[in-house]
Amino acid sequence: MEFYILFWICIIGLCLGSFFNVVILRSLSGESIVFPPSKCPKCQHKLFWWHNIPILSYIILRGKCYFCREKISIQYPIIEFLTMIIFAASYLKFGFSWKCLFVIFWLSCFLIMTMTDLREKVADCNIAIIAALSGILYNFLQTGGNGIISSVLGLIAGAIVLEAIARSGCLLVGTRAMGEADTYAAGALGAIFGLQNTGYVLLYALIASMIFIIPMFLYNRYRQGDKYTCILSILFILSALVYNKLYPNFWMAGILTLIGFMLAAAILKSIKTKENRNYLPYIPAFVLGALYFIFFSVNF
Ligand SMILES: [Zn+2]
C-alpha cells in the first residue's frame, strides 16, 4: 500500500516536473504558461502526445526532436527527475500533511528559480515573493499570530542580511556583490523558516556556496591567466591542512596567516580590476541550505 502511494506520488511529481519545464522556458521567453501548445523550439512543429511523456519521451526519442532531429535539452528530463525526487522525499519525510504540501510547493519554487538562475543568470523575483507569502501562511497555520510575526521578521532579517552583503560589495569593489533576486530569495527563506531559524539557514547556504564559489572563482582566475591567485589558494589550503593535522604550532600559524593575507590581497585586486565580474550561483546555494534545514535539522 505504502509503495503504491509512493508510486503515484512519483508519477504526479514527473507530470508537474514536465509543467515546470514549460514554466522555466516560458518565464524566460515571456510567453504565456498555458498557451500556445507545446512545440519544438527549433522547427516549431506541434508535438504529438507521446512526445510529452516525462523522461520516457526523452529516452524514446534519444534526446532529439521527432521532426527535425534537433537535440532536446537535457534540462527537460533532469527537471522531471528532480521534481519526482522532491515529491517522493517530501512524502517519505513528512507523510500526508500540510507540511508535506508546503515543502513540495517551496522546493518546486526553488527548483524553478535555480534553473532560470543557472540558465540565464536571472531568477524570477515573483516566484520568491510567492514562496515568501506561502511561508507566512504556513507559519500562521502552524502557530497563529506568533507564527506570522516570526515569519515576517524572518523575511525582513533575511532580506536585510543579503542586501547588506550586496551593498558591502559596492563599498569594497564598486558594484553590488549579489543580484536583487538573491535578496528576494533570502527574504523568502526567512519567511518560510521564521526569525529563529533564518540565521541557521543562511549559514548553511553560506557553507554550500563555498562548494560552488571557490572552485568557480579559481577556475575563472585560471582561465584568465591569473596563475598567481590559483597557486596562492592551493598553498593556503595545503598549509591550512598541515597546520590542522601535522604542526599546530606558532610558526605554521604565521605562515598560514601570511599566505592568507597575500591571497586576500590578490583576490581583492583581481575583482577590483576586472570589468567582467563572474557570475556566481547564490540561488542554488540558498536552495541547498534550505534543503539541508528541511530534511536534516531537528528544528524544522
Ligand atoms: Zn524540431
Global geometry? globular
Bound molecules: zinc ion
Please outline the major beta sheet.
none
Radius of gyration: 22 Å
Number of E strands: 0
Span of the ends, CA to CA: 28 Å
Proportion in helices: over 70%
Structural class: mainly alpha
Mean pLDDT: 85
Low-confidence stretches: none
**Strand coverage percent:** under 5%
Contiguous helical run count: 10
Sketch the topology as an H/E string, one letter per element. HHHHHHHHHH
Report on this model:
- With 300 residues, the protein is mainly alpha-helical.
- The chain is globular and about 70 Å long.
- It contains 10 helices and no strands.
- Zinc ion (ZN) binds next to loops.
